[in-house]
Amino acid sequence: MKESKNIEERAAQLLSLSAKVAIVTGAASGIGRGISILLAKMGAFVALLDIDDVKGRESAAEIEAQGGAAIFLNCDVRSAAECRRAVATVLGKSGKIDILCNCAGVAIRKDVVELTEDEWDLALDVTLKGIYLLSREVVPHMIRNGGGSIINIGSGWSLKGGPRAASYCAAKGGVVNLTRAMAIDHGKHNVRVNCVCPGDIETPMLRSECAQLGGDLPAFMREAADRPLGRVGIPDDVANAVLFLASPMASWITGAALVVDGGGLA
Questions:
Q1: Total of domains in the chain
Q2: pLDDT tens for residues 18-71?
Q3: Residue 266 lies inside a defined structural domain of this protein
Q4: Given 168, 178, 224, 243, which residue is catalytic?
Q5: Does the annotation count 132 as an active-site position?
Q6: Fewest CB within 10 A of the end CB: N or C in the chain?
Q7: Edge-to-edge order in the sheet of strand 69-74
């Protein structure tokens, strides 16, 4: 019994984020919201970044109502100035940043012929450039603080193509290789950089994709659930993977792309 208790205590210590400071982008809803809530539950002070003031403040308020610590900051990750300002605000309140989770993304369901140039730029700037801009601000502080963990949110379509999703596949494919490059560059600084690649997750974004394709939502969800584990994912599935990669339990993992998709790519 004592040994079992010691094991449980050790596991809790390895997953604890007590006294850690985290930034999560795209945090107002969907996967980003789920990640923010879980990191806060595990002890982190979480800065939620998004352009949706209403849902962002609601998510931060929910965390605080559950006894966690959070702040919402309006930030368009396409803007270098806004990313710099957000990071400065977090540092002003907490003095450090231990975890950065780049979750903001845009899914436009069109092929290259259908896509406008503005749509292409929007998808690439939010999903890929945003990672670069925030990481450029955060990494130097992590280095001065002795290390940190960056988790970028990719997709199953980071690793294979998908129909009518040219800009999304291009951006998410870039996320995986950017993750690898950053892991190589900053491993010597004890900054670990990993990627989580979700499959279909029950979120407003997934429902938006169905609408863009003109599909029937129940039929769309049944098709999305056609995978070995037989269901569509939920934000908690991705949040659990992010927690693992952010925690001391993953202290020797960097440059990895962790697929969380119920077996869809199997």
A1: 1
A2: 999 999 999 999 999 999 999 999 999 999 999 999 999 999 999 999 999 999
A3: no
A4: 168
A5: no
A6: N
A7: 69-74, 45-50, 21-25, 99-102, 148-153, 191-198, 257-260
